[in-house]
User: Fold this.
Amino acid sequence: MAERTVSAVWEEAMRCTVDAGGFPITVDEPVSAGGTDQGPQPTELFLASIASCFTLALSHSATKRGIELRGLRVDATGTYDGPRFAALRVTVHADAPRGEELERLITVAERVCYVTNTLRQGPEIAFRSS
Assistant:
């Protein structure tokens, strides 16, 4: 099994910098939550992971099947319930394909999207100090 690690280094207040594959990402909270509002919130990055992975899964699936993909946008919406999301919704918008062809493509993409498959399977989470 391959592993992948992403690291976060605390900067100040509620802000940190994440190294994701050599790409720095500032993560923060709004001022109202004690942050400096200099980057997306962790929950927004979580939703971004869902939306971006499903977008790429759709692109991959369309390319493999010779389907022209135009005007694609994927929205990931989370419904808060205390300190967690109680529900997640993924909405796919596309100029092409549409209708049943888009629905079939969504079904295929569901099988290859790492992020949504991880969420469905509920991986074990372990916390430890070094």
